[in-house]
Amino acid sequence: MPAHPQHTPSGSPDGDSTARVVLDAGDIQRALTRISHEILERNKGADDLVLLGIPSRGVPLAERIAERIASVEGYAVPVGSLDVTMYRDDLRMKPARALLPTSIPPGGIDGKVVVLVDDVLFSGRTIRAALDALNDIGRPQAVRLAVLVDRGHRELPIRADFVGKNLPTSLIERVRVTLAGIDEVDAVTIQGLAPEGGAA
Amino acid sequence: MKRHLLSAADLSRDDAELVLSTAAELRELADRPIKKLPALRGRTVVNLFFEDSTRTRISFEAAAKRLSADVINFAAKGSSLSKGESLKDTALTLEAMGADAVVVRHGASGAPHRLANSGWVRSSVVNAGDGTHEHPTQALLDAFTMWRHLGESKPGGLEGRKVAIVGDVLHSRVARSNALLLQTLGADVTLVAPPTLLPVGVETWPVEVSYDLDAVIPKADAVMMLRVQAERMNGGFFPTAREYSRRYGLDGRRMATLQDHTIVMHPGPMVRGMEITADVADSDRSVIVEQVTNGVAVRMAVLYLLLGGSTPAVGGEE
């Protein structure tokens, strides 16, 4: 399933001649600032919020959103990470994969408003897996979804509440998000190449 | 295709560290209200125990159940095995039942290898202790415990750490698996035992050997005590239990010579007063109870990495 080509490790986004930068560092910052305000507006403040990033690139995004909320509201929103590897529906179609960190903030998620944060929303299967994973951890009052990029092509009835940029793409294109901290620079790029091994 | 775990030597350094880091994530599960993951839903794990075992069987059972696998326990006593059925016929029965993994303990060294390589079963075979040969998951949980205490849970964390394995090395499958795995992970192992309790060919192992416990333990970062396996002995290995205990037992006086960070381990079951005194076993340095907790996480990691995907991520060649 080609849901997450952006997790493929690769060099700098500028290295590939067919890669096109659609969001640069400034665009990403502005998008995250807007998302942070939208979360606060929707939640009527920062009370009871818990941000859970989906590894690997959802986690730094969640941390950045939490920083912005802290600077606006002066309240440190709990941030954690939620690995969905064991809940994926394609677990048995690929070799067993290494697990990524899950860390639930000390207050737990019972009765909280959980905002899942991921980099790219594509088929929706990762989010389905995340909802199942949350089910085993607690019972939030509500679950919302924030993504940096929504590239369409949903295969499940899932939508994002907060979107950095809607990016209409073709299925043969690849969207890659790089974030300083994990990668060299902040950028969202599109490559027009056919995916490796014809995965689409 | 890689799909069995028969020997600690089957694991490359990358494999072993993948098991440790996977176990580190799975250990967090013990703190959650729902201690269950769906990764092995619909898979069947058979615990095939020809020898008595409480700890290892329960640990594997808990690990498989926490990953949502179905578990079938097959013990020698009161089953067809005690009526004279051969290993082959037992294996064919398991195959007919559709087992995805067989966790096997057997009194004969090499029985899991036979099961894995004979073509009798298609399932993954995990060695849970065979004779005096190997016990790879025990070595993994020991390494995991050391890695958490001494290696900051980082890759390469056991590089250059000194581990003393003390006692009945001759009859110990734990010692052999530990020596192989710790060597893979870059630690330095010293075996300490009376000459009569060292196996033939120990000079070919990747370890140092000493007969003097007092000289070794002040330099060690971890001291692992082994049980004297009286049930496998027919006399003559040492003069008296008291003399063994005086020379090779870990007591409070010897514990006082350890470095501050040194941990004391024991694979269990321990015989208090023989290889280890009660005050050492119950001291702050002792991680013996934690080893049991870690055992479940490590066995979950092994089962997940062997069975969780379309092809196993670790293990030996078929």
From TrEMBL, chain A:
Q: Which reaction does it catalyse?
A: UMP + diphosphate = 5-phospho-alpha-D-ribose 1-diphosphate + uracil
Task: Please give the Gene Ontology molecular function terms for this protein.
Answer: uracil phosphoribosyltransferase activity
Q: What is its EC number?
A: 2.4.2.9
Sequence motif: PRPP-binding, positions: 114-126
Q: Which InterPro entries match?
A: PRTase-like, PRTase_dom, PyrR, PyrR_bifunctional
UniProt-listed Pfam families: Pribosyltran
Check the record and name the Gene3D superfamilies matching this protein.
3.40.50.2020
Q: Which residues form the Phosphoribosyltransferase domain?
A: 26-163
Identify the keywords attached in UniProt to this record, alphabetized.
Glycosyltransferase, Transcription, Transcription regulation, Transferase
Is Phosphoprotein included in the keywords of this UniProt record? Answer: no
Q: What does the UniProt record say this protein does?
A: Regulates the transcription of the pyrimidine nucleotide (pyr) operon in response to exogenous pyrimidines. Also displays a weak uracil phosphoribosyltransferase activity which is not physiologically significant.
Report what the protein is called: Bifunctional protein PyrR
Classification from the root reads: Bacteria, Bacillati, Actinomycetota, Actinomycetes, Propionibacteriales
UniProtKB/TrEMBL annotation, chain B:
Binding sites annotated in the UniProt record for carbamoyl phosphate: 55-56, 105, 135, 138, 268-269
Q: Which InterPro entries match?
A: Asp/Orn_carbamoyltranf_P-bd, Asp/Orn_carbamoylTrfase, Asp/Orn_carbamoylTrfase_sf, Asp_carbamoyltransf, Asp_carbamoyltransf_Asp/Orn-bd
Which UniProt keywords are present, listed alphabetically?
Pyrimidine biosynthesis, Transferase
Its recorded name reads Aspartate carbamoyltransferase
Q: Where is the signal peptide?
A: none
EC number, UniProt record = 2.1.3.2
Question: Which positions in this protein are listed as binding L-aspartate?
Answer: 83, 173, 227
Q: What does this protein do?
A: Catalyzes the condensation of carbamoyl phosphate and aspartate to form carbamoyl aspartate and inorganic phosphate, the committed step in the de novo pyrimidine nucleotide biosynthesis pathway.
Please name the SUPFAM superfamilies in this protein's record. Aspartate/ornithine carbamoyltransferase
User: What PROSITE patterns would the database entry show?
Assistant: CARBAMOYLTRANSFERASE (PS00097)
Per UniProt, what is one Pfam family of this protein? OTCace
Q: Which GO terms describe its molecular function?
A: aspartate carbamoyltransferase activity
Assembly behavior: Heterododecamer (2C3:3R2) of six catalytic PyrB chains organized as two trimers (C3), and six regulatory PyrI chains organized as three dimers (R2).
Which PANTHER family did the record assign? ASPARTATE CARBAMOYLTRANSFERASE, ORNITHINE CARBAMOYLTRANSFERASE, MITOCHONDRIAL
Q: Which domain of life is it from?
A: Bacteria
